[in-house]
Every structure is written in structure tokens, then in C-alpha cells.
From TrEMBL:
InterPro entries hit by this protein: AAA+_ATPase, P-loop_NTPase
Protein name: AAA family ATPase
Record organism: Ferrimonas aestuarii
AAA+ ATPase domain: residues covered: 161-348
């Protein structure tokens, strides 16, 4: 269902990210543009107007203007045309020297960045705050995932609150699994800039390992195209960024790589307009208190305050659903004052029999296995109860996967039997050596 808010948001972002038709509309300084032109030519040696336009993600008329200015300054020279008549451009000796100096200052080589002010506007316009989460929306998003009703009644309001959420409970209760699917709730795409400019500094935001392109972005070889979508923005699914024990203080701030001379965006910036999950809270190299201290203001004001090594300070949107997941006691992680700042604290516990059976059947279907009610009941009465094991959401997948392995190895029918379950149980649960 497409909501009125979503239609309005799409219309706003389309207007905000229309393809620039002049240097002024690009939104960054001519010095930055000229440096990127020179660096791309140094990197490729020789480029046609089309190839350079594709690299910069700018319309051909803008790039031609930049090339003409560079030629007047004796920085760029015409080379022999291609077989299809396209002019080829290369750097003069003076241009090569300037390009090398530009690389010394910044190693960034990619599309022209968008101005920070434009990023602010687009990020706010496509914020998940624009979408109301209802019970029906949650059910539709998780139609292939079995969830207890009490969780539904907590998760939906928590998302509507737009406040940070703490999810806690024993291992195997489905905390991480659920969090990793929360970006399905909104089900739409967002625009993520390849990079943003802070004066002459460029911070790359788009990360191909984290951001999933909605579809293959077609190459636009029409150099005179001055309408439509600005290719400096990538259309992606709402991002889902999961960080566990590897989280460090460095990842929370802009990082400057001295070797590549490039700036790396903090995780909060990369997760904007999506979901940021801090998994296994309490097992990071930095303490939960340090994490919360760093994000107290961003969590409350929806803006983060960053700085560059040069000392320049600036603020960026902090527009994501922030989730913390832990199997430790929350009261032992941080004090009550910090816990109050987390809008919702949602406990995950063992399953009731009916929900466990539903997940069991779902996993049987996915693995093409058959399991009758008698065998399922035997599993509970003869294995779970005598061993004082609680019913956890991870058990069906794990046990049935072992059963499937045994069936495939022994070339057996796809029928779950008591013997196969007993073997799987002995393999899955560690037996005492005493």
C-alpha cells in the first residue's frame, strides 16, 4: 500500500535531486570540480567527453564548460579523435603537475559530491518518520516470519516512536534475526549520495558492500541529457547496517586514511534513512556507556556533530532507526539514566508451543522435509522436557538442517523420524563430559 506520505516524499526527493544543468546547480565550488576533472584525466591518461561525464556523473554540457576553462588555462589538450569522431582529452604538463598536487590534498576519485545542504534536505524528506507503522504494516512486512502477537504489539509502537530501541533476551530468541528484517517494514527505496562535500573535503557515503542498489543503474551516455534523476545519487533499498563486537570509537566518527588521503563516513552517516543495529551490546571494544555518551545528543536531536582533522566542525542528519540488541542483563550494562533515554526496552523470551510448532513447520517446508504430529510431539516430550530445554526460535532451523544433512548423506526419504531427531539432538546440544 502506497501511503500519501510516501507519495509526497518521493515527489519531494525527485524535485530535490533533479539533474543539474549548470555549474551553479552542481552545488560545489569550481575549484573542487576542476580538481576532479584533472585527477580523472591523470588517472585515465586520455578520456572522451562522454567517458569523463560518466565518471563525474555530470551532464556533458557542464563537463564541456570545465574542459574549455582548463584548456584556456593550458591544463588540458585535445588529442586525436576516436573512430566515431569523439574528441579525446589529456593533461598538459602543467595540468599533470596540478593533478598530482590535487591528489596530495585528497585521494578521492569518483563522482562529483553533492553539497551537504542538499543532503540534509533529501535525508529529512525521505526519513522513516514520514511513515506511520500500523499492525497491518507489521504483519505484511513479516508475513513470512512467525512472530508472537505480544512482540507485534511492542515493535510497531516502538518504530512509530522513532526513538532508540533496546532488545534483550537469552541467545537464540530471535533478537538479531528480527532486527535484521526491520527495514522491510517501510519497503521503499531511498536516495543515497555517492559522496558529500564539506568545503573542499569529500566524504564518501555510498558503500557498495552495505548499500543495496534497487536495480542496476544504467549508464547514461547521452551527454546532453539535462533532465531527470541526478546520477550522483544512488537509488537503494533502505540500508540495514549491523555492527557487532568489531565496533570501535573510530567507526563513530569521520576517519581520515593517511595512506589513501580519503575520508571515511561514520556508521551513523552510512545508516541514514535505514536501520542501524548495534548487535551483541556489551561485547564491543568500547563500553556501552561510551557508545551512549557519544550518541546522546544525536539520539535526541536527530543530528550528529562531526569534525575533520583540520578542525572544521559540521553537523549531519542522524535519521535512522537505532537498535541495540544484547543477551546480557541491561541493568548491568548501563545505569538507569541511560536506559531511560532508550524509548522502548523489548524482552525476547522462549516460545510457546504453538509458535514453536509454526516455526518448525515453516522450516520443514523450506527444507522440503515432512514431519508428522506424532514425531513433533515426541521431540517435545522425550527430548525437550527431560533435558529442561526451552523452546527457542533458532532450534527448528538448526535441528532440521542437521536432519537434512543426514538424509542427504544416507540417501533417505525426506521424512523426519525419531531416530534422525535423536541424532540431530546429540550433535546439536553439547553433552557433559562428566
Amino acid at each position: 500500500m502506497i501511503t500519501e506520505a510516501r507519495v509526497k516524499s518521493d515527489s519531494q526527493t525527485k524535485t530535490m535531486t533533479s539533474k543539474p544543468t549548470s555549474i551553479a546547480e552542481v552545488g560545489v565550488s569550481e575549484q573542487l570540480l576542476q580538481n576532479l576533472v584533472l585527477k580523472h584525466l591523470l588517472d585515465a591518461d586520455v578520456l572522451t567527453l562522454i567517458a569523463l561525464s560518466n565518471r563525474l556523473c555530470l551532464a556533458g554540457n557542464i563537463v564541456q564548460t570545465l574542459l574549455d576553462e582548463a584548456k584556456r588555462a593550458n591544463l588540458v589538450e585535445n588529442k586525436q579523435t576516436t573512430s566515431d569522431g569523439q574528441m579525446r582529452y589529456a593533461l598538459s604538463e602543467a595540468g599533470r603537475n596540478l593533478a598530482k598536487l590535487a591528489f596530495e590534498k585528497s585521494g578521492y576519485l569518483g563522482p562529483v559530491p553533492v553539497p551537504l545542504e542538499q543532503y540534509w534536505s533529501v535525508c529529512r524528506a525521505q526519513s522513516s518518520r514520514q511513515h506511520k507503522v500500523t499492525r497491518e504494516v507489521i504483519k505484511r512486512a513479516f508475513e513470512k516470519i512467525t512472530l508472537p502477537n505480544q512482540l507485534l504489539t511492542l515493535i510497531g509502537p516502538a518504530l512509530n516512536s522513532k526513538r532508540p530501541v533496546l532488545i534483550y533476551g537469552p541467545p537464540g530468541t530471535g533478537k538479531s534475526y528480527l532486527c535484521r528484517h526491520l527495514n522491510l517494514v517501510f519497503g521503499d527505496d531511498v536516495l543515497i549520495p555517492h559522496a558529500v562535500s564539506i568545503d573542499q573535503a569529500i566524504i564518501q557515503i555510498f558503500d557498495p558492500q552495505l548499500h543495496e542498489l534497487h536495480e542496476q543503474e544504467a549508464q547514461d551516455n547521452s551527454i546532453m541529457l539535462t533532465q531527470g534523476h541526478d546520477p550522483r545519487w544512488h537509488r537503494c533499498r533502505r540500508p540495514l547496517l549491523v555492527v557487532g563486537g568489531e565496533l570501535t570509537q573510530e567507526m563513530l566518527n569521520v576517519h581520515y586514511d593517511r595512506d589513501s588521503k580519503t575520508y571515511h563516513a561514520p556508521i551513523g552517516l552510512k545508516a541514514n534513512n535505514g536501520v542501524l543495529l548495534i548487535d551483541d551490546l556489551g561485547r564491543q571494544q568500547i563500553t556501552p556507556k561510551e557508545i551512549f555518551n557519544r550518541w546522546i545528543v544525536p539520539m535526541e536531536e536527530s543530528r550528529d556533530f562531526l569534525s575533520l582533522p583540520s578542525g572544521e566542525h559540521f553537523d549531519v542528519p542522524f535519521e535512522q532507526i537505532l537498535l541495540f540488541s544484547t543477551n546480557l542483563d541491561p541493568a548491568q550494562l548501563v545505569d538507569e539514566a541511560f536506559l531511560r533515554r532508550l524509548g522502548y526496552k523489548i524482552p525476547f523470551t522462549a516460545l510457546e508451543r504453538s509458535h514453536f510448532k509454526a516455526i518448525w513447520q515453516q522450516n520443514c517446508d523450506e527444507l522440503a522435509l515432512r514431519c508428522d504430529d506424532e514425531t513433533f510431539d515426541w521431540l517435545l516430550t522425550e527430548l525437550y522436557q527431560p533435558n529442561d530445554k526451552v523452546l527457542l526460535p533458532c532450534h527448528p532451523r538448526d535441528l532440521l538442517s542437521i536432519v537434512a544433512d543426514q538424509i542427504n548423506f544416507n540417501e533417505l526419504p525426506n521424512q523426519v523420524t525419531k531416530q534422525l531427531l535423536h541424532q540431530a539432538w546429540s550433535i546439536y546440544f553439547v553433552q557433559s563430559m562428566n
